[in-house]
Amino acid sequence: MLGMCRGRRKFLVASLALLFIPALTWLYLSVGSFQVKPLPLSPLEALSSTPVGGAGERQALELRVRVVEEENRALRRELSRPPRSPSAQLPSNNHRGNQSRTHSEEGTGDNESQKAVTVGNSSDCVRHPVVDKCETIHVAIVCAGYNASRDVVTLVKSVLFHRRNPLHFHFITDSIAQQILSSLFHTWMVPAVRVDFYDADELKSEVSWIPNKHYSGIYGLMKLVLTKTLPSDLQRVIVLDTDITFATDIAELWAVFHKFKGQQVLGLVENQSDWYLGNLWKNHRPWPALGRGFNTGVILLLLDRLRKLRWEQMWRLTAERELMSMLSTSLADQVIHWNSPKKLRVKNKHVEFFRNLYLTFLEYDGNLLRRELFGCPSEADHNSENLQKTLSELDEDDPCYEFRRERFTVHRTHLYFLHYEYKPSSDNTDVTLVAQLSMDRLQMLEAICKHWEGPISLALYLSDAEAQQFLRYAQGSEVLMSRGNVGYHIVYKEGQFYPVNLLRNVAMRHVNTPYMFLSDIDFLPMYSLYEYLRKSVVQLDMANTKKALVVPAFETLRYRLSYPKSKAELLSQLDMGTLFTFRYHVWTKGHAPTNFAKWRTATTPYRVQWEADFEPYVMVRRDSPEYDRRFVGFGWNKVAHIMELDAQEYEFVVLPNAFMIHMPHAPSFDITKFRSNKQYRVCLKTLKEEFQQNMSRRYGFAALKYMTAENNS
Q1: Hey, which of 358, 513, 665, 694 would disulfide with 430, CB 3.0 to 4.6 Å?
Q2: Is 357 helix (H, G, I), strand (E, B) or coil?
Q3: How many Cα neighbours within 13 Å face the side chain of 239?
Q4: Residues 654, 536 contacting (CB under 8 angstroms)
Q5: What sign results for the dihedral spanned by CA atoms 433, 434, 438, 441?
Q6: Which residue blocks in 476-513 are alpha helix, DSSP H?
Q7: How far apart are CA 343 and CA 364, in angstroms?
């Protein structure tokens, strides 16, 4: 792993390697003697000209395995010796804890056993290698799908935490991972970090011809084509798996490139698994490897040399030859990566250290990693510059400064935190329920999923630690795991206000249906509302008209409610006092225009007019206006949106057989602040007046009614 140096121990835990590797071994692949005829990638493949699968080849393999095992034993004996004097140490530009003992340093010897590799290690702790302060470190990662996009964030956090150099991430992704990671890095806004994406779908044809049984599928083979995929002027790159965690500066790994000599082009680390030794069971014949083989979770690639050596042709011809007998690749999971929750329970003498290290970065606040690298010029980030300019124009002495600042805060956002599947309907009537929530409303998710079978888009306002709690909660819920059409979008906490309208906008932007039902997390829609709304789309010609379909809102004060299965049952409970029209006793104006008296007997949709403070729950087209971000926490966040819809000439149409019920819960922190803090109420009033003035400027004479209505209310 990273960061331990104990010279007198039997197994040296080296300074840069993968998790749980007790002895670090670097492989430098020498290709000075390679010709483009039979193209051996290791001595195992060059030992014999016997046809593949012949007895001679097997004997040669067994002989080579014994030779490598003897080399490993000799290496371990060397590691167990006391440290030598400083005069025997390597120069300072060598990687800490990594001293080469070469069989053929340049890889040009004629002896087959010395042809392709040099294996080495060190028992000394030498000084940190020197990497130029502002040198950009390039990192390539293959990442595909929802789960890998989530896992890779922990790796990135660990790299950012320790780094002192500019970073350039090269992500080879499918369309899903690109959408998720591009949004994440765009909103993360980490200085001196550049991110580029390469379409993995365009590379599939390069490796899809190789039969593969590994759990990573075809994406695990895409590292083979990095010389062709990455920019032609990129000379070196560190290639990482998504499930790696760093415990020290990645620059120490980058410095190992200075140890490469002659025709050495690859840096790898030896496996600790016995898989490739081929003796786990009778007739066990794994993919050919040198001894235990070398793990590709971390790779150093000298791209310019590989291209000159025609790497593309080398690996293709070798793979074709081996597949004649192996039939498919079957890669082992040789080291402890964090690609399974079960691996947190692995027994190992270092397990507590590594587990805690991993869990620390898993829940680490990513906002703390937005730190500048002083003294290094960075590329101009226009988004960051515009944001800083906007914030500098705000008056910090303004009593409402924090409210105004929140409007421009960029919240780190992780889209589709869990797996998501949606198949568009053929009739173009599909509707997505849109809502937002924080950790204290998590218990509502299962109930909503039971009431609404259609697509759902949710924005969750969580810290990094809370996001992991949510993940465990969701993965432990049969109800949530049975639903693939729910999009969970994490907006990470920052600042003192609950950015309710930003959350709504995030959920709205990732609606994949033509229509959306704008709800709140503490409302349960009637059981058949999804299908009812889809029928209303056709009945009311929503595709060709600007309508907002109002779903009447009710509430109960009972935590246990026998949910009405029809309008008749709801009216009965309303008459019995089990249900009430929503907020009738504290905020009548919010839903009074719905005209509940008319709704009781209505059998057809009816139109209502906008009135001051009207804030119904509506279904609209996906292209409807977003919510105004200036309203945070409690107060006027929905009122302003409904006013915007009215200004854009939407018709408000009440549905006669639709309803939703608000479930009781403890008061939110924001409503408590509104009620107890006078300055909070003063600032909200100021923001309302500014919003109305903006409406007048945008909509002219037609918007005067909003100011008049406010003055009369």
Answers
A1: 513
A2: helix
A3: 27
A4: no
A5: negative
A6: 478-481, 500-509
A7: 20
Question: Alpha-carbon torsion 663, 664, 669, 675, what sign?
Answer: positive
**Counting every residue, how long is the chain?**
713
Strands 617-621 and 456-462: unpaired
Distances (CA, A) of 471 to 144, 336, 464, 466, 488: 19, 22, 11, 9, 10
Beta strand 456-462 pairing with 486-492? parallel
* Cβ–Cβ < 8 Å for 137, 250: yes
List 78's β-bridge partners, or say none: none
Position 351, amino acid: V
C-alpha distances (whole Å) from 42 to each of 3, 56, 270, 288, 523 are 30, 17, 14, 9, 64
CA 388 to chain centre: 26
SS3 string of 188-218? HCCCCEEEEEEEHHHCHHHHCCCCECCCCHH
Rounded Cα distance, 699 and 148, in Å: 46
Long-range CB contact pairs, 396-405, < 8 A, 24+: 399/679, 399/682, 399/683, 400/682, 400/683, 400/686, 400/687, 402/495, 402/496, 402/497, 403/497, 403/630, 403/632, 403/683, 403/687, 404/630, 405/495
Distances 101 to 26, 120, 182 between C-alpha atoms, Å? 10, 5, 43
Task: Please state whether beta strands 294-302 and 264-270 pair in parallel, antiparallel, or not at all (unpaired).
Answer: antiparallel
- Mapped onto helix, strand or coil, the DSSP state of residue 495 is coil
pLDDT digits (tens, 9 = 90+) for 51-95: 444 556 556 555 655 665 565 566 555 545 554 443 333 333 333
CA separation for the pair 41, 63 (Å, rounded):
18
Give the C-alpha separation, 591 to 553, whole Å.
Answer: 8
Furthest-apart CA atoms within the chain: distance in Å: 98
How many C-beta atoms lie closer than 10 Å to residue 232's C-beta? 10
Q: Which of 197-211, 492-506, 536-550 has the lowest mean pLDDT?
A: 197-211
Token pair for residue 685? Answer: 């009033």
Identify any residues that bridge with 697 across adjacent strands, giving them in sequence order. none
Q: How far is Cα 499 from Cα 411, in angstroms, rounded to an integer?
A: 9
Nearest CA among 62, 473, 476, 134 for reference residue 285: 62
Place of tokens 């290496």: 75
513 in Cβ contact with 432 (< 8 Å): yes
CA 625 to each of CA 117, 351, 578, 616, 703: distance values in angstroms, whole numbers, following the listed order? 63, 52, 36, 15, 16
Phi, psi (deg, nearest 5) at residue 164: -125, 5
Q: How far is it, in rounded angstroms, from Cα 199 to Cα 204?
A: 9
629-675 tens-digit pLDDT: 989 888 788 999 999 999 999 999 999 999 999 998 777 777 777 77
**What is the average pLDDT score of the chain?**
79
Strand 606-608 to strand 651-654: parallel, antiparallel, or no bridges (unpaired)? antiparallel
In whole angstroms, what is the distance from residue 549 CA to residue 664 CA?
25
- pTM for the model: 0.79
